[in-house]
Design a protein that fits this description.
alpha/beta; seven-stranded mixed sheet; 2 domains; binds nicotinamide-adenine-dinucleotide; single chain; 39% helix; Rossmann fold; Dihydrodipicolinate Reductase, domain 2; globular; six-stranded mixed sheet; 13 helices; 15 strands
């Protein structure tokens, strides 16, 4: 069977990871690579026996390209999604869709009548441990969920130039946790209260950004969730989720299997965590995500996070930004009120 030709836009940190995964997939071949930095595109294409091209139109106009991965900087995503869908190319686009809800809505207007589907790269939905946790919650293993705690602390901040353009901690990093909560609980938070500061790099404060945060979310049924984030963690990637309910508790550490333990004459202790980068720590989920995307090319149905999921997660991130400024809880519903699907659901 002929392999599916894939076009990749963006040859930076995450683009390189996607290229490697595409290259190793039995049903795909990395055909074309484009980046505004031609040097990066050329080097990545060479590494994977692909062809570097100078414009996105070269990818969109090539009938041998069955689908496109968008891994360029966040502020390019909305326009590129619209262009890919208009060209009939299914898309896997990195999170977030954009930094502005208005632009997300505009993009939605442009793509909603089209058939090519869009998947947003919330890779944690494809982490085996989170999938198992979701199933256990749905199977009632903790009974009625009353509270959820999510901790995501990453070993070190991304490069400063990246952070500056990332849209801030809530839109760039916490957005994964917002999506994870929506994925695990199948529920929309009714209020968001955020606190945070630039504790690790005080210079970020001048840019209006923070690197340490706590976010409290409340749901309509009275249950609550709490997210803790830090962009630096001396002992490595620290990712934990605890779901507490009427019948007990489910907990995951790092989503990477059982926590390491050491037993000696003194007793049992946990070993320091590996200094995995968050991306490598979730490598398997990126591979699963790609596999699901390839499957969706056959079914035509989005696997994982849809465009609307990306929209909802961004609305929660925006609510957290607004809450930080207002120093009070924000109802995220009006922020996603323009979502046609939400309006449809509300009218039923
Ligand atoms: N899912 C995840 O866990 C995860 C992890 C890291 C990054 N990301 C997302 O991936 C995206 C890229 O992040 P990164 O860390 O790879 O950043 P990066 O800065 O390393 O790479 C971005 C690349 O995009 C290129 N680029 C910029 N504008 C372009 C355009 N108009 N056309 C083509 N290429 C263009 C840049 O030259 C650069 O090479 C961001 O949106 C980020 O939020 C997701």
């Amino acid at each position: 069977m002929a392999r599916l030709g894939i076009g990749l836009i963006g040859a930076g940190r995450i683009g390189m990871l996607h290229a490697q995964i595409i290259d190793q997939h039995p049903r795909c071949t990395l055909a074309l690579v484009q980046d505004v930095d031609a040097r990066l595109a050329g080097a990545l294409a060479l590494r994977h026996d692909a062809r570097a091209v100078s414009s996105v139109d070269d990818i969109l106009g090539d009938p041998a390209v069955a689908a496109v991965v968008i891994a360029s900087s966040t502020d390019t995503h909305a326009d590129l999604i619209a262009a890919c869908v208009a060209a009939g190319k299914p898309v896997l686009c990195e999170k977030p869709i954009d930094l502005s809800l208005a632009r997300v809505q505009q993009c939605h207007e442009l793509i909603r009548e089209r058939t090519a589907h869009v998947q947003i790269g919330f890779n944690r939905r494809f982490d085996d441990h989170f999938v198992a946790l979701r199933k256990a919650i749905r199977d009632g293993e903790v009974g009625r969920v009353e509270s959820v705690h999510v901790i995501t602390r990453v070993p070190s901040p991304p490069p400063y130039r990246y952070v500056r353009d990332s849209g801030g901690l809530f839109r760039d990093m916490t957005i994964h946790d917002f999506d994870l909560l929506r994925f695990l609980l199948d529920a929309e938070p009714a209020s968001v209260f955020a606190q945070g500061a630039a504790l690790i790099d005080p210079g970020l404060a001048a840019e209006g950004d923070i690197d340490s945060a706590m976010v409290q979310l409340a749901f309509a049924d009275g249950s609550a969730a709490h997210i803790t984030n830090a962009r630096r963690c001396a002992y490595g990637l620290d990712h934990r989720v605890e779901v507490f309910g009427s019948e007990g508790k489910l907990s995951l550490q790092n989503g990477l299997g059982a926590p390491l333990q050491r037993s000696d004459r003194i007793g049992t202790a946990r070993l320091p965590l590996h200094h995995d980068s968050p991306i490598l720590g979730y490598l398997r989920s990126f591979v699963n995500q790609w596999d699901a995307f390839v499957g969706s090319l056959e079914t035509g149905r989005v696997a994982g996070a849809s465009f609307e999921d990306g929209w909802h997660a961004l609305a929660l991130a925006q609510a957290a930004c607004d809450s930080l400024v207002a120093r009070s809880a924000i109802d995220p519903a009006p922020l996603r009120a323009q979502d046609p699907l939400a309006q449809l659901a509300a009218s039923r």
